[in-house]
Amino acid sequence: MSTDAGNIEKIRSYLNKSWILGTLRMSYVCIWENNEIRNIGTEAVPDRILKYLHDCMESGLEVDSYHKEFIVDADTASVFDIYFIRINGSSCLITVFDLTEVLKAEKVREERETQIYRDVIQAVTQGRLLLTGYDEIQQYLDEDNFYGGMKISEPSDIATLRYIVRKALDGLPMSKLRKDRMVLCVSEAATNVIKHVGEGEVRIYLGENGIRTVISDDGPGIDISRLPQVALMKGFSTEISLGCGFNIMLGFLDHLIMSTSKGTTLVMEMNCSADEDTGYQKCLEPENRRFAGVQFG
Amino acid sequence: MLEVKTSKKNGQTVIDLIGEMDIATVDKFKMAVEEARDGAPGMVFNMAELTFVDSTGVGGLLNVIKSLKYDDIDVRVINVSDEVYEVFDLLGLPILLGKEIFQRAE
Fold this sequence. Notes:
The complex is a heterodimer.
Chain A: H1 2-17, H2 19-22, E1 25-33, E2 36-39, H3 47-58, E3 66-73, E4 78-86, E5 91-98, H4 100-124, E6 129-131, H5 134-137, E7 146-152, H6 157-170, H7 176-196, E8 200-206, E9 210-217, H8 227-232, H9 243-252, E10 255-259, E11 264-271, E12 294-295
Parallel strand pairs in A: 6-10, 7-12
Antiparallel strand pairs in A: 1-2, 1-5, 3-4, 4-5, 7-8, 8-9, 9-11, 10-11
Chain B: E1 2-9, E2 12-21, H1 26-37, E3 42-53, H2 55-70, E4 74-80, H3 82-90, H4 93-97, E5 102-104
Parallel strand pairs in B: 2-3, 3-4, 4-5
Antiparallel strand pairs in B: 1-2
Helix pairs in contact in B: 1-2
């Protein structure tokens, strides 16, 4: 029996700590009877909600024993959760919960969660994988150093893309090993777009210290809660569909920056420095070197 | 582009892979294996002229080899370049299939 009491105590303390639950308020309670709405709570239902409740009931809302509706009040940017509970044939109990603060709290919690994922992922990948937002990732579109790009929509486009990336890499003082790896990584990312979304765009930038490609699509995005697993596990045995290409990218790239809120954007960077086979190599920008904005594809 | 050439050598079926194996070309390889597998005691994939492979290509290769092994067809992968082997290794192919079936390029 003492365990039960302990459990109840635990649940109680958990409930007390839950700030999402803490923000939940029952705002209004009323009864629908004889085509009229009668307040039974301390606060009267405001007119704008009352109007909605009338509409609901008069439109012949079939309340079997229980019915639930969400309404969004655009004027006050509020969201209400409304429960219709039938008492008998002609009357119905209506409770109105204001969810506005709950949703705000949930958003804050989601942002915290995302921040934790970002930190964990950055830590387990030694800083190589950075999760970021859609707005933040736009700063990587360094148009002064734009080299070229193409849209991809068919499997055969990926070979063309590899050819373009190889050409872009031609002039860079980077080892063949790293160039091959970069080509492979771009191929993996583009293949993911073709497989999971169908079409997307690739932009290539050449900077003083290396190459950057930005691959974007308008797909549904990647579930980031799976990323720590992907980042930590290797090979096919993981059975994660997005896993393999991701393993390659994480294994080879110097930086992988990802935003997956509005579609998915992947920024992939390979530096000229610290080649495994050539040792440290400073990547010098040749004099007056300017990359023309050539559009391929 | 991927060119797939099938030939017989010392009772073995040899499949030469020439070019790049990726999402657009991996099916060509799979089809060539399907056509050649019946009654073959062993199969050799010659990768001397395979210039590129990515995880989609490796995934195809893995499935093909697993299916051949299931039918007791002996498989060997020969002339694997360093670049290609690096991708195999990263994806755990030697661990999953056994190192002995891979013969590296000289």
